[in-house]
Amino acid sequence: MRNRSRAVEGAGDDSTEPGDGPGGRPGDRSGGGSWDRPGSRHGGGSGGSGGSGNVDETTAAELPDGRVCFDTRNDAPSPGTRADARSRDGGRTLVKPFRPQAGLVAPVVECSVLQLRDPDVLLLSGPADPGFRAPMTLRASTDGGTTWQPVRTVDGLPAAYSDLVRVDARTVGLLHGAGDFGVYGTITFRRVPVTRLTRSLPGAPADVQSAHDL
């Protein structure tokens, strides 16, 4: 994710040194040639979370107001499997430590976030069953990740890690692992019309049918 002149990328990090970045997020100002791990005033704890839980596999998205939203997997048995945090300075520090996101039900797994512009909607991809990696589901937030609602269930098959990309003005791309009997059978790329993901949200425009509809 790029925030002004800075690239921000989530990464796993099991160190517990004071000042570690949240969820092991390195920052870069060199166009990808070199990376640094910024400190955090809320650093410390497992993976630099600064809060409860054991955060890992963090993904980031820049919200319309310029804040960076960090969404992460929580490996701790409680209080939940998802946690999030916000940064106002491009990922250098967190406004508050990672906190459980009670509005997201998911197994322990990596998820992906993507901020759409026009419309301003934050998307999250990941399995929705709390005890099993299935089904792959897309969820949307119109308040910067405070609340979420499911907007598209891809299918009922096992599914694991995923990534999201804005293909063009009308299409979002979803890449995810899946399979008939397990989550590692294949890697699938799907094109999803933006209108299919936003038509149930407040103020959404009328749905437009597409040849790429799932």
Automatic annotation (TrEMBL):
The protein's enzyme class: hydrolase
Compositional bias (Basic and acidic residues): 64-74
Listed Gly residues bias regions: 20-34, 41-53
InterPro entries, A to Z: Sialidase, Sialidase_fam, Sialidase_sf
BP term (GO), one: oligosaccharide catabolic process
Signal peptide bounds: none
Catalytic activity of the protein: Hydrolysis of alpha-(2->3)-, alpha-(2->6)-, alpha-(2->8)- glycosidic linkages of terminal sialic acid residues in oligosaccharides, glycoproteins, glycolipids, colominic acid and synthetic substrates
Domain of life assignment: Bacteria
Region entry Disordered, spans: 1-94
Domain Sialidase: 59-169
GO molecular function: exo-alpha-sialidase activity
This protein's GO CC annotations: cytoplasm; membrane
EC number(s) given by UniProt: 3.2.1.18
Family: Belongs to the glycosyl hydrolase 33 family.
Name of the protein this chain belongs to: exo-alpha-sialidase
Organism in which the protein naturally occurs: Streptomyces minutiscleroticus
